[in-house]
Amino acid sequence: MDFMMVGVIGVVAFLTLLFVGLPIALAFILVGFTGTVALLNMNAGLSLLGETMYTAIASPTFTVLPLFVLMGAFAAASGFAERAYRAINRAAARIPGSLAIATSFGSAAFATICGSSLATASVFGRVAYPEMRRYGYDKKFALGSIACSGTFASMIPPSGMFILFSIFTEVSVGRLFMAGVVPGVLTACIYAASMYLRARANPALAPISEEEHAVTPRERVAALGGLWQIAILGGLVIGGLYGGLFTATEAGAIGAFGTLVFGLLNGPLRRFRIFAGALRESASITATLFFIIIGALFFSRFLGLTRIPFELSNFLQTWDVEPWVILALILLTWFVLGMLVVQSAVFALTLPILFPIVVELGYEPVWFCVIAMKMNEIAGVTPPVGLNAFSLAGAAGDEVKVNEVFAGVWPFIVCDIVVLILLIAFPQIVLFLPNTMLG
């Protein structure tokens, strides 16, 4: 059988297995192994799989992933999200949409110590949603603000997804982390402005409570003091990377240790059940991610045998169109696939193929990864496979249905599209920090 035909059948089979619910890593390995055996033989398939399993995670630099996962697990278990939310909520009192605005900036603050968007959406679903409903906030407005704000952890360092991007593209983790800072903060600000304008135009969306009217200016300023621990941890990790004081792996170790110390001082991690639960969660997430990495790299090697990446690259580079047309087609493909397939699978499947093509067309690698991450944020809340929406619906209680979350996200997706346009029109928004970092 023709090699390229086997590759096409493999891609279709992989997507089909995802639709029927097979785990991503198993789908990658099953299709990759079957395809390699069909192209070569059984011994070659076993040899390639074994070699990939070793080389995929043999590098010491891969320790950055479990360290930042551990940092996020300690942060989620230690109540940092609650501290961030309540501090910013107090500071924003009497502003229309204050609870939603507190969710936006609280999620951004929590993202500096937790690299998981699913964890952020889940935690704020338990913390912010009951408060919003208690004060009469519109249900869809509340759910949409929480689900979309949770995606900041994908962009703002230490982002777990950026670590995966670094593995698939070999772009520096530190540069990717720095590149995500300004776009992440910019998105939080645009979200907050949207919340304020919508709440001011329609006060029924976000009523201002009597408790908020009682907050004094002095109390507003004092409330921000509750963010000092997050500021120290985020400053150490992000500032240390920017200043060249330590590598991404060292930053992960410092962040995990600092989060553990504050978690012990604050009390939650003193309880063995919570401490052990954070360790179990960290180990489970790390093992899952490594399994996905191995499967994705093995599948990409299978595709390499079929010559699909080479032929696609050759076609796009010789296609007589402007480079921006190809970029637009890639973004459109990601948007469609992101609504149908889990984001990690989309990027594990496409980045090894598309990234070299985009770089060859002259686009800056770090900038392209941030654009891809913005598409990842949008995919995280769009139906039918928006994982943040499902995570929030599960955390907020039985009264919340996933379709209600999806109904509330569309105004924020418009905000994301505005940010995406700004990042494409002004690449220096992305590149300023990476280009000026030391070390």
UniProtKB/TrEMBL annotation:
Give UniProt keywords alphabetically. Cell inner membrane, Cell membrane, Membrane, Transmembrane, Transmembrane helix, Transport
Q: Which GO terms describe its molecular function?
A: transmembrane transporter activity
Tell me the first and last residues of the signal peptide: none
State the family it belongs to: Belongs to the TRAP transporter large permease family.
Question: What is the official name of this protein in its record?
Answer: TRAP transporter large permease protein
One annotated Gene Ontology cellular component of this protein: plasma membrane
Quaternary structure, from the entry:
The complex comprises the extracytoplasmic solute receptor protein and the two transmembrane proteins.
Answer whether the UniProt record assigns the keyword Translocase to this protein.
no
**What is the originating organism of this protein?**
Acuticoccus sediminis
Q: Function of this protein?
A: Part of the tripartite ATP-independent periplasmic (TRAP) transport system.
Q: Main site of residence?
A: membrane
User: Which positions, given as ranges, span the membrane?
Assistant: 12-40, 61-81, 141-168, 174-193, 221-245, 251-269, 281-304, 324-357, 378-397, 409-433
Its annotated compartments are:
Cell inner membrane
Pfam hit, one: DctM
Q: Enumerate the spans annotated as TRAP C4-dicarboxylate transport system permease DctM subunit domain.
A: 11-429
Membrane topology of this protein: Multi-pass membrane protein
